[in-house]
Amino acid sequence: MRSSTMSLPAGQRVAGLTMEVGASLGSRFGAVHRQKRARRVGWQIVGAAFAAMLPWAAFAELSNETLIGPGVRYRPAYDGSQSQTLELVPVVRYFGQPWFVRSTQGVLEAGARTELVPGLQAGAQLAYEPGRKASESVFLQNHQIENISAGASIGLHVEWDHSFGPVPITLLARVRQNVESARGAQADLRLSVGLFHGGPVSAGVFTQASWADAKSTGALYGIGPQQAQATGLPAFQPGGGWLSTSLGLLWSVDLNPKWVVVGSLESRHLSGDAAHSPLVERSSNSYVSAGLAYRY
Known about the structure:
This protein is α+β, with helices and mostly antiparallel strands. The chain has 2 domains: 1-50; 57-295, Porin, CATH 2.40.160.40. The chain has 4 helices and 12 strands; from the N terminus they run H-E-E-E-E-E-H-E-E-E-E-H-H-E-E-E. It has helices at 10-53, 138-142, 214-221, 225-231; strands at residues 67-76, 84-95, 99-102, 109-117, 120-129, 151-164, 167-178, 185-198, 201-212, 241-254, 259-270, 284-295. It has a 12-stranded antiparallel barrel with strand order 1-2-3-4-5-6-7-8-9-10-11-12. A hairpin with a 7-residue loop joins strand 1 and strand 2 (84-95). The termini are far apart.
């Protein structure tokens, strides 16, 4: 069956087709324009909501208030383990002139620091390095993997504290050398941002990237030839490089002017050679911590 358009003279058919195509394209471009305009409006709404939230900037770990108290942490036996364990941890933060001690930025550390320019601190620290206990991991026990004893490291750090309008941020760079030279060195870069403060509740977010040299990665995730024979796992000798990336949430709730409940939720992902170690059961782990601290 022929269409009515095909029965028309050639000139009229071309004109009719041109009008139909033009109308179709116009409709299509109009729909695209409406979609783009809707997206712009959507982003404007999101931006307005975020801007409205910014005045409620939190201080979370961005604060320099002195804190001390007990806490608990639910963590993996080691990064890469399927097994989880619960442990007691200190909640401590003190900044003096020049001494400091803190557990609120991923590492239990103490040392001395000085202000280079307003908002920029530099110093040296002694930090606790947790090691690894086979008794906390079913996998390590089944393969008779030896413990790595807890130890300490010495290092340097630079910290920048600033506020963009009502939003406080802290950028912390650290390098740490284990006091046992065979266990190598690590470095990390940590960014913390305050996002919310309403009544007694404060919250913020942080992200951290960590690097390790070949000695450090090998001590934690390497398997030597003799250990391979004893455990039945393949030999593995990792190199240095990117070790892990973390993303987390920080929060605090004031109970009264002197007491505060603090906590964090962290997701940590192994990277580089460490992620391919036969000792790694999973590449991502979660950390959950909470504590009660006295503010003075």
